[in-house]
Amino acid sequence: MALEEKREKRPPVTPMMIEEEAALRNGSRGLTPGPWAEAAGPRPRTTERHIAVHKRLVLGFAVSILALLAVTMIAVLLSVRFEECGAAADGPPRASGNGSLSGVARQPPGAGQPPGQPEEEARGGEAAEEEEEEEEEWQRRQELPPWARPRLPRHLRPLHYNLMLSAFMENFTFSGEVNVQLEVRNASRYIVLHAHRMHIEAVRVAEDKLAGGVRVARTFFYPQTQVFVVVLNRSLEVQRSYNLKIIYNALIENELLGFFRSSYVLHGERRFLAVTQFSPTHARKAFPCFDEPIYKATFKISIRHQATYLSLSNMPVETSVFEEDGWVTDHFSQTPLMSTYYLAWAVCNFTYRETVTKSGVVVRLYARPDAIRRGSGDYALNITRSLIEFYEDYFKVPYSLPKLDLLAVPKHPYAAMENWGLSVFVEQRILLDPSISSILYLLDVTMVIVHELCHQWFGDLVTPVWWEDVWLKEGFAHYFEFVGTDYLYPGWNMEKQRFLTDVLHEVMLLDGLASSHPVSQEVQQATDIDRVFDWIAYKKGAALIRMLANFMGHSVFQMGLQDYLTIHKYGNAARNDLWNTLSKALKRVGKSVNIQEVMDQWTLQMGYPVITILGNETTDIIVISQERFVYDSDAKPKDPSRGDNSYLWQIPLTIAVGNTSHISSEAIIWVSNKSEHHRIPAFEEAGWLLGNINQTGYFRVNYDIRNWRLLINQLTRNHEVISVSNRAGLIDDAFNLARAGYLPQNIPLEIIRYLSEEKDFLPWHAASRALYPLDKLLDRTENYNIFNEYILRQVASMYLKLGWPMNNLNKSLVQASYQHEELRREVIMLACSFGNKHCHQQAATLISDWISSNRNRIPLNVRDIVYCTGVSLMDEDVWEFIWMKFHSTTAVSEKKILLEALTCSDDRNLLNRLLNLSLNSEVVLDQDAIDVIIHVARNPHGRDLAWKFFREKWKILNARYGEALFMNSKLVSGVTEFLNTEGELRELKNFIKSYEGGAAVSFSRAVETVEANVRWQRLYKEELFHWLRKSLTH
Ligand SMILES: [Zn+2]
After folding, report:
1. How many Å apart are CA 299 and CA 180, to the nearest integer?
2. Each residue of 861-877: b (16+ CB within 10 Å) or e?
3. Which residue has the higher pLDDT, 469 or 947?
4. Does the pLDDT of residue 15 top 60, yes or no?
5. Which has more pLDDT, 457 or 266?
6. In angstroms, what is the span from residue 482 Cα to ligand 1's centroid?
7. Contact 71, 172 (CB under 8 A)
8. Number of neighbouring beta carbons within 10 Å of residue 64
9. How many C-beta neighbours within 10 Å does residue 991 have?
10. Percent of the chain with pLDDT over 90
11. Distance of CA 479 to the CA centre of its chain
């Protein structure tokens, strides 16, 4: 799953909406669904109706059953409880179509009751009493009843599911019948499985080999753990196999999880589609199932829909059966063993293009017909074919299904989801029109696809046992984004270079907070599971895997992965399984490292170390020490039982020594103590020491000032002696060490002086990213100009050398000169944002030309910079022009940068207007509103406006995004991260005291960040300005 930084809202469901939807359904349901779907008509679910019909229906319901089943049913009536009878609102319930009703229990709509409705209210008093007795019994045994435990009880295992669905797109409901073949491991009277927000019609349990059912005593939902419980009259017997049949129906909701709907406009007409998102815990909203990754089973799915639509699922369609009334049922082939959260289906009227890999895998890209016609999916389709071939070769495990469909949808909570054989992408992350896309956009699309394809092996084929290890699959997929992109574009050096700025440097910012958390997080409740999908899991996971690959050696690492996938395919594996396989691979090449012991320290402890290397001119002995790196040493540790001093890591440290013309080859030193002495041969003759060669390790390195000076000299005289990655690494380490107070403030500013000679993109990129937070710390201070002036001086000569790009880059140029174009873009961005006059003029000229000619001749790769600069410098007319273009453009990539440009204005009225418009869904898409607010907060003229707006609208924002934890946390950190005055800190703390619920973790991180900002201002701001003043007068 690739996290989307822009996630769409989940609109709160109000009672009114439920009623409206119910009315719509009941009014327009004129169909004759098939026999198994027939019993599963949708039901209104309002509380009032529920209670009103309850009493009068109990009797009628029982009578009709009696009439139907006559004498044999007396026994059934003794055990079956018709706890509630909303079903009878549509007449007497019908048999499920399989003859005997022996052992069938019918479930009331209380089953699908609106969230928050008390359980007792929805059930008959007698049943509740019985349940209470049972609960007391469990209490006496001092055990939680099996349905109240955070994990499913282990006594049953699903082997196979037959799932038959009917999708009613005209009223957005669906009905289903699931037959689960169960293996009994321990005898029990209870069947506990997940089911959430659905209406269960009927339940039947039968022994596989024998006729006749096992009688169901009662059934009930237990919403706290999102399970459905079937209580039987007798225990299921060990080692026998049973069939559980459940008939149910539910809504195709207008939201983002489970089986949900979205829409798009084609030729002026709104069209609907329905698609699933089950990861991590939402399969239970679409069918009753054992919704934990460990319960791998095979699935046979059938989908019945109107013939005007098509249906897709993980496997190819085996047969389609057409009915006379314009309906069709697609029967899909059976899946291999897989976890529920990777199951997927869709009902849409998209079209597709197709390609076939060398090994015969059919790859199709499905999207809305106009996009397919334009060829917007062709880029994704082509790289997918290459990438499947790449992964098959790298992992030496063939792709496991006969086909892979990529589905581009308008609305999705994540950038993409790697469902096995049917991966779903949000349109912005897969459709690409080469004539209007920047390199950055192309890179985004590419990496999301590389990520999802990696999951077909790491995730779909071998699945983490439980969610605490989600970082394993996400870390791998994120790491392979860079490896796979290198395969497609060998000159881009993604894994060796861009990985540093985009992953390593980025995540060390987050993980340097005392309020961070270990990459492997304990997860108990289902509601905790969303929490584990964060940048620590993705980026730190990837950084740790890269460190591992480097200290193992890439070829041994690759062999280890091949073994791991071969051993565990179609199964589940935990991190220790991986560590063991990798240790064995190392052993085979004669090396012995206990990988589990090393990696446990990195995955179970939060944070990372800073290594300090102290040399001595007169000897070849150096002192190496380690401590936990934190930005704010005053911040309270999250785990008060252990001080920062108790953190220790086994660190694979590489060290090289160098002088003006030469650098030694590095050697690995395993550092495992607080402080160690090491002899470095040839150190005496050499000038300087350099640690963490090519920044393959997940840690920072600090030196004594003398060594920093020698390194600065080296960079100034001949920077190419030090590798590109280490030049970027030195810049990032120096800025962050200074920010945290480990290093004087002038050292990083002295380092970047050499940049005027730097022709590689990466060190510039590292500098630009490191300068950004410093700029935000200073941008509202009265001496800001000094800082500004200093940065402009460093940028000026390179800006002159590189100039501006020509218009209309063609694709081959993009590929050939990626590094050069990215460097030029970076330098122009720095020049324009720090106020280089030529840069400003150029941007204004380009915008004026666009306005007067109404032809956009602005080079693609710098459009965002030009738009933003134009809006910030020019008058309101330009703002209005961009606003108009934002409305009229249809290209998704262009729309995004136009909207962001509007936040660059200096005019507070315009910024306020934009903030207020951002919550109007008809003007700004819900998923884009967050970006608007965050970008206004980055603008020094708008920071306080965004902060005020955020507090005033918190209730609305939290209701919109609260359930999408990742989105909410992005908003909280985006609005608060650059607050840096005592007053703002007070406002933040007061707000947290008074706010209502949600995002607690994000707020504690926000407080720590702002405290660190305030502390930096107090301790280091003057020191920095003092040095800058001195430096500028020289
Ligand atoms: Zn992923």
Report:
1. 9
2. bbbbbbbbbbbbbbeee
3. 947
4. no
5. 457
6. 14
7. no
8. 15
9. 16
10. 66
11. 14
What is the rounded distance in angstroms from the CA atom of residue 254 to the CA atom of residue 260?
6
CA of residue 418 to ligand 1 center, whole Å: 7
Q: How many CA atoms lie within 13 A of 4 on its CB side?
A: 25
The 10s digit of each residue's pLDDT in 306-340 is 999 999 999 999 999 999 999 999 999 999 999 99
DSSP letter at 113?
Answer: P
Q: How far apart are the first and last CA of the chain?
A: 53
Instruction: List pLDDT tens digits, range 505-542.
Output: 999 999 999 888 899 888 877 667 877 778 888 999 99
Q: Quote the ligand 1 centre to 381 CA distance (angstroms).
A: 19
Q: Specify whether the CB–CB gap between 380 and 406 falls below 8 A.
A: yes
Between CA 839 and CA 824 the distance in angstroms is 12
> CA-CA distance, 150 to 291, in Å (whole number)?
12
Task: Report residue 669: phi and psi, to 5°.
Answer: -120, 125
Span from the CA of 530 to the centroid of ligand 1 (angstroms): 13
What whole-number distance in Å separates Cα of residue 504 and Cα of residue 498? 9
Question: Residue 3 C-alpha to ligand 1 middle, in angstroms?
Answer: 7
CA dihedral 232, 208, 285, 257 (to 10 degrees): 150
| Ligand 1 centroid, distance to 960 Cα (angstroms) | 24
Report phi then psi at 348, rounded to 5. Answer: -155, 170
Work out whether strand 216-222 and strand 269-277 pair parallel, antiparallel, or are unpaired: unpaired
Tokens of 3: 């996290």
Whole-number Å distance between alpha carbons of 572 and 399 = 17
Catalytic (active site) residue 452? yes
Place of tokens 């669905």: 165
Task: Please give the distance, rounded to the nearest whole angstrom, from the Cα atom of residue 474 to the centre of ligand 1.
Answer: 5
Average pLDDT over residues 95-114: 39
Give the separation between CA 225 and CA 953, rounded to whole angstroms.
Answer: 31
Instruction: For residue 173, give both structure tokens.
Output: 């409901």
**Neighbour order of strands in the sheet with 700-703:** 675-679, 621-628, 609-614, 700-703
Residue 198 to residue 165: CA distance in whole angstroms: 13
User: Which has the closest alpha carbon to 955: 1001, 1000, 914, 996?
Assistant: 996
What letter represents residue 922's amino acid?
Answer: E
| Structural contact between residues 629 and 740, judged by C-beta atoms closer than 8 angstroms | yes
Q: Rounded CA gap, 444 and 287, in Å? A: 34
| Cβ–Cβ under 8 Å, residues 216 and 245 | no
Gap from CA of 452 to ligand 1 centroid (Å): 6
Q: Which amino acid is at 562?
A: Q
Distance, in Å, from the CA atom of 375 to the CA atom of 353, rounded to the nearest integer, reads 9
Tell me the C-alpha distance between 515 and 1004, whole Å.
7
The pairing of strands 227-236 and 188-194 is antiparallel
The answer for residues whose C-beta is within 8 angstroms of residue 326's C-beta and 6 or more apart is 306, 307, 308
**Alpha helices (H) along 655-810:** 705-718, 724-739, 746-751, 761-778, 784-802
- The torsion angle over the Cα atoms of residues 827, 829, 835 and 837, rounded to 10 degrees, is 70
Q: How far is the CA of 445 from the centre of ligand 1 (A)?
A: 14
Retrieve residue 685's tokens: 């003759």
Q: Give the up-direction half-sphere exposure of residue 812: CA atoms within 13 A in the CB hemisphere.
A: 0
Name 650's Cβ contacts closer than 8 Å, sequence gap at least 6. 597, 598, 601, 670, 671, 672
- Give the tens place of pLDDT for each residue, 803-843: 998 765 444 444 447 888 899 999 999 999 999 999 999 99
Q: How far is CA 88 from the centre of its chain?
A: 43
Distance from C-alpha of 838 to C-alpha of 344, rounded to nearest angstrom = 53
* DSSP line for 450-511: HHHHHHTTBTTTEEESSGGGHHHHHHHHHHHHHHHHHHHSGGG-IIIIIHIIIIIHHHHHHH
Burial bucket for residue 622 (CB in 10 Å: 0-12, 13-18, 19+): buried
Token readout for 464 is 């983490």
Q: Which of 452, 481, 821, 977 is catalytic?
A: 452
